[in-house]
Structures are given as structure tokens and as C-alpha cells.
Request: fold
Amino acid sequence: MVDSLKKPEFQEIRPGVKTPAKDTILTPRFYTTDFDEMAAMDISINEDELMAILEEFRADYNRHHFVRDESFDQSWDSMSGETRRLFVEFLERSCTAEFSGFLLYKELGRRLKGKSPVLAECFNLMSRDEARHAGFLNKAMSDFNLQLDLGFLTKSKKYTFFKPKFIFYATYLSEKIGYWRYITIYRHLESHPENEIYPIFRFFENWCQDENRHGDFFSALMKAQPEILNDWKAKLWCRFFLLSVFATMYLNDLQRSGFYASLGLNARDYDIHVIEKTNETAGRVFPVILNVDHPDFFKGLDVAAAANAKMAAVAESNQPKVIQQLRKLPHVAAIGWQMVKLYFMKPIDMTTAHGQVR
Reply:
């Protein structure tokens, strides 16, 4: 029987299987790339570091970690309607993002086999990790009488093509920001166990180490391709991807601040901490990072988040789609203008700070 607390927002493609969230600019994407270009890459100048990371992947430190224990064996009907809706949405977004990584890494492992064996094995082992993550999240959704049909998702999602260097920038940041998101929530709930609404958060400490290792792999891979980091175009693209990842998280999280409040977290403070830490981490490999300490940086994101909230309110109205689109235009323009201003804010040059990107 379908849970009586379940909101109408949870549309189903069949009983117990949630209709995937509609694609927007802020939803997790599925990626594809130029596999031949990837296979032709020469990694010899940093192969030692890549081999060391491969050995860590082979060790499979978390092979026994993703096992549900007795803490899951209870009813979650007591979770309030709004908290329940936001938490299921969190599980879905997280599962979709992890599954996106699985599909990309699995295909890269398959396409590079016999051409670049070190990279092929790294991608296959990372796809193993992402499959575990996605499966664990999808099983958690079943506690709320819903799951994602991952096979349907594979066929129905639109795939975004990125050249390999853009895949590296995006996935490196995705993995590193995932690490900081997970470890920050874990440490908060470790100090405030009374705010733990569901036991999945207890797994985040080991889980985030997978994210960290994956990020280290992409860092090593970029160092093996110096042109990806050391020319003037790299500086422009690093700024673009840093801002894109930070803004996407910020707008999404502030729109769902109720979820973080249910964990005892202030969504804005949480995001500022995660952005600062991810930006600092990126400075170890990127030639430039964003000046997130500038007083106008988070002010600009706040303006964009307010405009995004207004757009969401318009989307929930009963007006015709054409009218909704017209009403959204000024808010889209406001977000776009803030992104332009933040992009052209003077960045921090890490090549002068560290002497040289290595």
C-alpha cells in the first residue's frame, strides 16, 4: 500500500517507481565524451602517481562498508510530510548524480580497454564505487516506498557531450565538492546526533573517502596533461567550472533550506563552508581559484538565489506555460548578470602562489 504521507509531487511511472525529476539547468547531468581522444592521451609524465592511485582503488577499502544494519529496520512513517519530501528529493538527486558517474566511468573503462590499460582499470574501479553509492541511495528510497528505475534513467536522460578536458574539470570538482558536502554533514551529525533523521548519514565518513580518491585521480590525470592546466585558456575554463559548480549547489541548497534545517544546519552557512573548502582544495591543482572571500562573492550568489526562488514560485503557479516563461525572464536575466559579475571578479592566481602548477 502506498504510504499515506507521500505527497502528490511523487509521480510514479509504475507503482513504487518514481518518475525521474524533470531536467533543468540545476539537475544532475549525464555526460559523454570523445573516447578516442581520451584513449590517445599520454600519461607517462605522471604515471607513477596514477599507478599509486590505482593501487588504492584495487585495495577497495569500502568493499564491506555499504551494508545496511539494523538501524534501517524500522518504519519511517513518522518523518513529517515536508521533511520527508525534501529528504526523498535529496536521495533522488544524490542517486542520480552517483549513477551518472557510474555510467560515464563504466563506458570509459570499456572504451579504453586495450588502448590505455591503466586509465581503463581506474575508470572501471571508480564505476564500481559509484554503483555501490547509487545502489545504497536507491535502497534508501525504498524505505519511503519509492525507487528509481536506473535502467529507465539510462535510456531517458539526455546526455551532455564534453571534451575530455572539460570532463576532467567538471568531475574533479564534482568529486571534491562531494567529499566536502558529505564530511561536513557527517561531522555535524557526529556532534549533534539528535538531528540525525535517517541512518544513511552514518556512512558518510568512509563514503566521502571514495569521493576524495576519485578527485585525486582526476587531479593526477590533469597533471599528466600540462596543457589542461598551464595555458591562459585553462585559467578561464577553471574559473567557469568553479563558478558553475558553486552556483549550482548554492541555488539548489538554498531552495531546499528546509532539508538542511531538519539536520540542524543553516543551508547558507553550510554552503559557504563547503565552497570555501572546495575552492581551497582546487587551488592545489587549478592555476586559478575564485576569490570567495571577496565581500561581493556571496552577496552575488544571494541575489541569484533570490531570483531562483522567484522563478520556482512562478513555475508552481497555475498560469499557462507561455505566461510563466515571460514572468521568468527578468529572474533569468538577474541570475545571468550575477554570474557574469562573479566570473569577471579578479581570481586568485595559484601559479604565483605556488610558483608553478605541478
About this structure: The mean pLDDT is 91.
